[in-house]
From TrEMBL:
Stretches assigned to the HMA domain: 4-73, 82-153
Lineage of producing organism: Bacteria, Bacillati, Bacillota, Clostridia, Eubacteriales
Native source organism of the sequence: Desulfosporosinus metallidurans
CC terms in the record's Gene Ontology section: plasma membrane
PANTHER family named among the record's database cross-references: CADMIUM/ZINC-TRANSPORTING ATPASE HMA2-RELATED, CADMIUM_ZINC-TRANSPORTING ATPASE HMA4-RELATED
Identification of the protein by name: Lead, cadmium, zinc and mercury transporting ATPase
Pfam families: E1-E2_ATPase, HMA, Hydrolase
Domain of life: Bacteria
Subcellular location(s) per record: Cell membrane
Amino acid sequence: MSNARDQLTLDGLNCASCAIKIEDSIKSITGVREASLNFVTKTLKIEAADSDQLDHVLTEAQKVIRKLEPKVIIKNKEIEKATQTLILVGLTCANCVSKIEKEIKNIAGVKNSTLDFATQRLTIEADKHELNRITAEAAQVVQRIEPGVRIKESQDAVKVSSFKNKEDEEKSDHRNELIRLTLGAAIFAIGLIFRFTYWVEFALYFISYLLVGSEVLTNAIRNIRRGQVFDENFLMSLATVGAFAIGEFPEGVAVMLFYQVGEYFQDLAVNRSRKSITALMDIRPDYANLKVNEEITKVSPEQVTKGQTIIVKPGERVPLDGKVIDGMSMIDTSALTGESVPREIEPGMDVLSGFINKNGLLTIEVTKEFAESTVAKILDLVENASSRKAPTENFITKFARYYTPVVVIIALLIAIIPPLVFPGATFYQWLYRALVFLVISCPCALVISIPLGFFGGIGGSSKQGVLVKGSNYLEALKNAEIVVFDKTGTLTKGVFKVTQIKPSQDFTEEKLLELAAKAEIYSNHPIAESILKAYSKPVNKEDVQSYNEIPGHGLKIQSKGEEILAGNAKLMIKENIPYDDPINVPGTIVHVATNKNYAGYLVISDEIKEDSPTAIRSLKELGIKKTVMLTGDARSVAENVGQELNLDEVHAELLPDQKIERVESLEKQKSPQGKLVFVGDGVNDAPVLARADVGIAMGGLGSDAAIEAADVVIMTDEPSKIATAVRISRKTYRIVWQNIIFAFGVKVVVLILGAGGLATMWEAVFADVGVSLIAVLNAMRVMK
């Protein structure tokens, strides 16, 4: 395996001693061959022992950096590497996936390669200047292993996988396949029903065999020439040719016929499963109604630029993110958020691409080009999610690599040893048993159904408003034991409002609010905005002669000769002003004074989301051991929220680096298999999101920072979607393991029966193709 290198840029790295610590820590990561951090250029070069370990090494390196220097912004060196995606149209051999993937990884210059059977997408990451050469070599590898596959470049990463757009081709292929199998079956039936001479019967069976099995035989011969012996084509060819060799003509034809019929129905089931999963994310808009002056033109969404105006008619899908400038309507957001109730939209409100306009005519100003739009991000994430394989998928892929050769060797021993050792044992008898053993050995049921199961889980969760960035994260969620929440914007709305106005004896509520509004007129802090909104009257900025912000205390202004103070208790103490000190008030307190006279205080609170109590209750019902809240807010405010939501632990007044320390201490409390999940807003909590086993960004649909930092993105502001994600994870994992146990169980039983002479090739065909078909159909249940 060739070495793999990558380079990171650490923006904001200003500590030279920290650079040495980072370099030393990364060198100690398992799989790192060499690491060097240049403090002057702020570039970190990492070399992994092999390409398989590079992703793991980079992930661990980023954890080290965020632990030692949380404020550093980590960037990949984009110019050094690039990604090419190819669509392998007609890829139906699940067993060939690992072979193609392995060979492409060995091409010089390839950093990583993943082939997803469910989406037929081959993703190659390589040095940018070598990408064309590598893509050409990869195409040769694919054609050598699977000559029937058609290779298409995916120029547009956000398009739904190409299998959605090739239904006519598939129908034609299936029709031709069905005609060939029907003709072969008819000739086989003639030979079986009517009595003929030996050679006529042989000719009928042989013609029938060639009709139904010629493709399998051709593939087997071609693969043997290339040194790829152990696959399902070889096994079926060996078993059926062996049956002909011992004079079992009907059985040889029957096994090949039923194998091919089974494969035909299996292909139909796989394609239907793929289409069903893709239909869940069928949100890509076909066109946009571009308005230029008073003329409306139907154009591709990619042609519309930021700032232009589009029209969305009733029943149409919103093609691009934007702001409504005219019109009112009800919109269906279910495709993106999973919400079944339509949302009312009016001028000034934001809309996202993928929403469906129900009734009114909307005029929208575009705020993002299509490549940066919400629908583009979602499709890209969902399509590429399967490239991050779950541990179960990786295990089965490795297992399948060794399973078939071992079974072939055992079959060979069954055919040779018993006739030589046991008295009365005939070579014919044990050869037949060995052939039965071979038919059973193909691991297709596992190799096909498991990726489809995880892909279905990712597609299903997306339909519920939960974007999971990889099968590995979907599987990790099932083991969630501790869920840690940020407060503002996660459990609370993040929208501050004045909830109490407490004037002193000589002031009215209106006067107190007026003084506070004057003091906050130049501030853009959310608390200042909430005070100005509560006052709801215009404040003349020209009345303010001086404005002085006192860090950590508050504000001091001069207005028409009047000195106004607004801030916390420390400001009152600093200015020697006696003040009221309320106890256990659920909110932020702003004290106000004028000309050294205490005017009273305001309480500004952040409301708890209506969905938060349901979220915590649902998580506890699912068996989550501990729910914790970390916040930088005041202790009294945090404890009030914690009590109301029945959280197990609350830690308040924390700085970002202290949040990481708390997360690390909480990680020590989980079991070895357990996972810690952190839920934050995806912007301020990026270091903690990255540090947790699974990071979930709440309400981060329009946030690039959220999508980058988190492993899972909740498309709405509903914390209850976390429980939904855990349920889908557990259901997916349960169905995947049902398939594993079912496939192994049936195969082991029939293998034993076959070796003991109690199972014929008919049972063997069921153990191979029948089990595969049932497993695929079972995998489709994950979407319901």
